[in-house]
Write a structure and sequence with these properties.
Layout (H helix, E strand, L loop, with lengths): L5 H5 L3 H21 L3 E2 L2 E4 L2 E4 L3 E2 L6 H9 L9 H18 L2 H6 L7 H15 L5 H16 L4 H14 L9 H17 L12 H23 L17 H21 L17 H6 L4 H24 L6 H9 L6 H20 L1 H14 L5 H18 L3 H18 L4 H17 L5 H13 L9 H29 L2 E3 L2 E2 L3
Antiparallel strand pairs: 1-4, 2-3, 5-6
Length: 506
């Protein structure tokens, strides 16, 4: 057995890293609590801007802290809603692979130039952000399979789609699911402090988002090809060849089209017994993508069930499935190597629960935004400072809505007093938030990224670690951050329209 190098022996796995972060959080909470560190935050109450009572750091090593850790160890798992969605996704993708449907669907990917494939993967990731977190659940395992079936590097596909989706939180061809919810906080902050006539439009940043999508994909392709691609080893995974069937593909396509027509019909208002998948709301966008929309809640389920049905049809027509037992086995095939994921997510849930209880993320974020609000600098400088402050906040609070709810009562009026629109403030936040999500191990989907990297990693000498993954992605992330700064400042200097009837400068 070859002797491991010092570097290999000192390589710390993700689980140990998370445990260390838990210990650091406990110690930090004790120190900050003893120092009586606290901060006030601004909140909107009855359309009025108010200051909350001082938020202090709770001591995790106190009697109450220890009790909380023990008591909440199971309830913390409620933070991992994505885990249950991921189980559905893995079943559907597993059956698609086992049936041979993916083999026939994606075999032509082998002929695609690697530069174009990276660009296409990024574009799909950015655009898919319209469905929010569901895009991670579907695309990370799916893209890995596509790259594997095509004889490409699965690790490259996993890294690229993760960066595409995450950066897509700030871009997108239209809007994403968070825009509508964020708009509520944006409107409340604007109307309560500066302009009572302000009305948020989900398409207010349409032009800058489309431009950002194009530039992010072009620049991102170049950066990934130069810095990421050479450091990822060749694909050493050998996939099992399945029988191909034109008849099976035809029947599967018919099933898909029938389901698609049914879904489209049920999201079209006004037709006979249509609108089943629409929720309440004043506009069609709210009815389709609002928090109470059946389409919003059910789109992942519909997609995965459709994939299962099409795979079932293809598998039996092609005779890749000899009986129903083969179908059942196909549903579970992706779980064989992902026990590691459940371990990672368990410890991540404990870390997130502990951080929430201590109030450390909220204190840091509120303190930062309060500090920035006191700066007497030109608007141009304010934009840059706030951009990087939000990136720091995102390391501690990866959740977009949670963070925007916390800082919008200060950031929106601050930008408006500097003669910039609330829509521009929201755009700057989204851009910075997308960068921050890429670099924080507290982001649940970063943990899922690690698990799939581990699954497809065939190089035993290069272990998948949190800091190793961040180090590998960092050159690309830095380039994308610079790209974002150029976009948002360029729009400011030129005072270009952000979207229909919306400009940067008021």
């Amino acid at each position: 057995m070859a002797k491991k190098s010092i570097k290999e022996r000192l390589s710390v796995g993700p689980v140990i890293t998370i445990i260390v972060l838990i210990l650091i959080t406990m110690i930090a909470s004790t120190v900050l609590s003893m120092m009586e560190v606290g901060v006030s935050k601004s909140v909107i109450n009855n359309n009025t801007l108010e200051s909350s009572p001082i938020i202090t750091v709770n001591n995790a090593l106190s009697f109450n802290g220890i009790i909380s850790i023990i008591k909440n160890s199971i309830t913390n798992l409620e933070l991992l809603r994505p885990l249950f969605l991921l189980i559905m996704s893995l079943m559907a993708i597993g059956i698609g692979e086992a049936s041979g449907l993916f083999q026939v669907m994606f075999k032509k990917v082998k002929k695609i130039n690697i530069d174009f494939l990276i660009f296409l993967t990024l574009l799909v990731g950015v655009v898919s952000s319209i469905i929010g977190e569901y895009s991670y659940i579907i695309l990370i395992p799916l893209v890995a399979v596509i790259y594997e079936q095509a004889g490409k590097k699965p690790l490259l596909g996993i890294y690229t789609i993760f960066l595409g989706i995450t950066l897509g939180y700030g871009a997108g061809l239209f809007y994403n699911m968070d825009d509508i919810t964020m708009g509520i906080s944006t409107s409340a902050a604007a109307t309560a402090t500066v302009d009572s006539t302000y009305v948020f439009n989900p398409l207010s940043n349409l032009y800058i988002m489309i431009t950002a999508t194009i530039l992010l994909c072009i620049v991102g392709t170049s950066a990934i090809k130069k810095f990421l691609y050479p450091k990822i080893g060749k694909n050493e995974i050998i996939t099992e060849e399945k029988k191909e069937s034109g008849k099976g593909l035809f029947y599967s396509l018919i099933a898909f089209l029938l389901i698609l027509v049914a879904v489209i019909y049920e999201i079209v208002p006004g037709a006979y017994k249509s609108g089943l998948l629409l929720g309440p709301g004043n506009t069609y966008i709210e009815k389709l993508l609002g928090s109470e929309s059946p389409f919003n809640y059910g789109i992942l389920f519909i997609f995965l069930i459709t994939l299962m049905i099409c795979s079932f049809i293809y598998g039996f027509v092609s005779k890749n499935f000899k009986d129903t037992n083969d179908y059942s086995v196909g549903l579970s095939v992706n779980f064989e190597e992902l026990g590691y994921l459940f371990v990672l997510l368990f410890f991540t849930a404990q870390l997130l629960g502990l951080l929430n209880w201590t109030n450390i993320p909220e204190v840091i974020s509120s303190g930062l935004v309060n500090l920035v609000s006191r700066l007497d600098v030109p608007a141009f400088i304010l934009v840059v400072v706030m951009f990087f402050a939000i990136i720091i906040m995102s390391i501690f609070i990866p959740g977009t809505i949670e963070k925007w709810t916390l800082i919008s009562p200060i950031m929106v009026p601050l930008f408006m007093k500097a003669s910039t629109s609330p829509d521009y403030a929201q755009m700057v936040f989204k851009a910075a938030d997308s960068i921050g999500k890429c670099i924080t191990p507290l982001f649940v989907y970063f943990i899922i990224l690690l698990a799939f990297l581990e699954k497809y990693n065939t190089n035993e000498k290069k272990k998948i670690t949190i800091f190793g993954t961040l180090k590998l992605m960092m050159p690309v992330i830095i380039i994308m951050a610079c790209n974002w700064v150029v976009i948002i400042l360029g729009w400011y200097v030129a005072n270009l329209p952000l979207g229909p009837s919306t400009h940067v400068i008021l």
